[in-house]
Amino acid sequence: GVAVDVFNSTVLLPFQGKSSFNGYDVQTPIYATKLLGLFESSDVEDDFDLLDFEDSIGCNEYKEAGNMPLHTSAVWKYLRDVYELIVGEASTIDPDDDGSMSGTKDVEMKVSPGKGRGLFAKRDFLKGDEVFTTIYGGFYDSQAYRDYLRYLSISGNNDLACDVLQWAYVTKTQLPEQIEKTYLKSGLVVGFDINPGSIVNNDNKNPNVGALNGDVARDVHIALRDIRKGEELLTSYSAFEK
């Protein structure tokens, strides 16, 4: 198969086809058929272990090497296109959402000293202002989540699979129509933010942004205090550990 570099490639899978950021429609039947064929031959079983998978695709080496990329809008679109292909009508993304960089026009990704990647303010914010909005790609069942990770790996994008494993978290939806779709109607959904909101770093003691939770599809993050242009945005990861 072809090892795919999403940053420079015109190939989306280990077979002929243009990438989603060159106008290739990932929803076409032939695309989906070939994808399912790859899954059927890739030993995705119920005992699939995420830690073993993480080790097998070299995530530790990827993290230790440092210099992890600041993803472009094309890469976020790729992650979103693959997500919508895998989950289909079970997508948690609002169909009216205007793109993979939606809700992040006033923030930017940069290198954060000692932390790796980080999210920074592009302008001043006052306490209570909306700073950015995350677009959550949730999986209502674990098999879809596994399929998503395996898809990235099969198409040669282990580094992106490692990123998703690092960013993923469990949230609990409060919306009845979403609760009905979850395992044992628990309301629990696993997923990650498919836009630069995934990059925001943790500060449990002194966060400067916090999320207004409710709809699993998107979280509006507001300023908890005045924030200056160029300041790193920090949230409390403890909100994801309930």
Labels describing this entry:
Beta-clip-like, five-stranded antiparallel β-sheet, disordered N terminus, 242 residues, two-stranded antiparallel ribbon, single chain, alpha+beta, 28% helix, globular
Map the helices and strands:
Elements: H1 29-40, H2 50-56, H3 59-65, H4 73-87, E1 107-112, E2 116-121, E3 130-139, H5 142-154, H6 158-167, E4 169-172, H7 176-179, E5 188-193, E6 201-202, E7 209-212, E8 218-223, E9 234-235
Parallel strand pairs: 6-9
Antiparallel strand pairs: 1-2, 3-5, 3-8, 4-5, 7-8
Written account of the structure:
The structure is a single chain. With 242 residues, this protein is an alpha+beta fold. It has one domain: SET domain (Beta-clip-like). The protein contains seven helices and nine strands. α4 crosses α5 and α5 runs antiparallel to α6. The protein starts with 28 loop residues before the first helix and ends in a 7-residue tail after the last strand.
Q: What would a concise description of this structure say?
A:
The chain is an alpha+beta fold and 242 residues long. The protein is built from 7 helices and 9 strands; from the N terminus they run H-H-H-H-E-E-E-H-H-E-H-E-E-E-E-E. The relative contact order is 0.17.
Alpha carbon gap, first and last residue: 41 Å
CATH class: Mainly Beta
Instruction: Assess the beta-strand content as a share of residues.
Output: 15-25%
**Rg, Cα atoms, Å:** 18 Å
CATH superfamily: SET domain
CATH architecture term: Beta Complex
